[in-house]
Design brief:
The protein has two helices and 19 strands. The protein is mainly beta. The protein has two domains: about 250 residues, no CATH class; about 45 residues, no CATH class. The strands form five sheets. A six-stranded antiparallel sheet has the order 1-6-7-8-9-12, with helices on one face. A hairpin with a 6-residue loop joins strand 10 and strand 11. This is Alpha-tectorin-like. One of its GO terms (biological process) is cell-matrix adhesion.
Length: about 325
């Protein structure tokens, strides 16, 4: 995970530091965060990290239990080591790194924004999570006893010449038996820093942010739709629990509610797609998470077109007047 040294934009930094900072506790999508919640705050440092954080509960992530973690400024919670890399690699990673990545991109909180985190057994917070889990996954009957909340609040991108900021959050939670990650997206205005070939005015282009997680082996990983493409800018409009801006995963025994996982990509329940560029093999996401596939080509009236991570048969436009 080598990375090159980035030159600093001193003028942009000076201008950006004159901008006001703040955080919102009123957004229903996000769990409360910030100084009033007793949160710790990461160093104001490009590519910075919290350092190793001890947690009182062993958090199971793909059958392994972790009692320490790192909250990294570049949108990553890691379990083995700090992450300084700012341009995201495609999952699966081959170096054994273990990540939860709500939005792995080139954050620069020297320009704007803050990164907060806390461990909590607060009744009010746990009741909020319980209510959300009852709403989204009632069959789980999940009542948490512990949570860890990390929030990236109005953070800028490296090399920014704009006032575009991102706010997002990851919540790790358990009842002592099951382990979930909840990702909340409040406002996403950029995807890429300039050191990842993004545009300084728009924060777009280059190698966009990655969202999902990597287990540390090459078999278990997940990409939220749009990851490392321009479509990740729209992540607030996506969900696997029918609640735009929220994704929920069970991570001790890997489950992605609301659909199926095919080659680390998400398909909604009932969705039909073709897995090959010639649209020769049609697949369907079933309610039990299975994805049966059959040999079935597009009809003569349709063409095979890319559609997100898969392919779809699109009806040809009628050229007749």
């Amino acid at each position: 995970m080598a990375f090159v040294k980035k030159s600093h934009f001193l003028l942009a930094l000076i201008l950006a530091l004159t901008l006001g900072r703040g955080y919102s506790e009123s957004e229903s999508l996000l769990y409360p965060y910030g100084p009033s919640e007793g949160d710790h705050k990461n160093p104001v440092q490009d590519d910075g990290t919290s350092g190793e954080v001890s947690i009182s509960v062993g958090f199971k992530f793909f059958s392994k239990e972790y009692t320490t973690l790192f909250v990294n400024n570049n949108g990553v919670i890691s379990f083995k080591t700090a992450v300084f890399q700012y341009t995201p690699d495609a999952f699966p990673l081959t170096n054994g790194e273990t990540f939860v990545t709500p939005f792995w991109g080139d954050v620069d909180n020297e320009l704007h924004g803050d990164v907060y985190y806390r461990e909590s057994t607060d009744d009010n917070l746990l009741k909020m999570i319980t209510k959300d889990m009852e709403k989204h996954l009632p069959e789980q009957h999940f009542i948490p006893t512990w949570a860890f909340i990390a929030t990236w609040d109005k953070v800028a991108y490296y090399g920014s010449a704009s006032e575009k900021f991102n706010t997002f959050q990851a919540a790790l939670t358990t009842d002592g038996f099951r382990y979930f990650v909840i990702m909340n997206y409040d406002d996403i205005q950029w995807t890429t820093g300039t050191a990842s070939d993004g545009d300084p005015e728009t924060g777009l282009g280059g190698t966009p942010a990655q969202a999902g997680f990597n287990s540390g082996d090459v078999s278990h990983y997940f990409n939220i739709p749009g990851s490392r493409t321009a479509e990740v800018l729209k992540i607030k409009s996506t969900s696997n629990v029918n609640y735009p801006g929220r994704w929920i995963f069970r991570v001790d025994n890997f489950e992605v509610p609301g659909g199926c996982v095919y080659k680390a990509y998400f398909a909604k329940e009932g969705e039909e797609f073709w897995k090959d560029s010639g649209c020769r093999t049609k697949c369907r996401c079933e309610s039990d998470g299975d994805i049966p596939c059959v040999d079935e080509a597009c009809p003569p009236t349709a063409t095979c077109e890319p559609s997100g991570s898969f392919y779809k048969c699109q009806e040809k436009e009628n050229s007749c007047n």
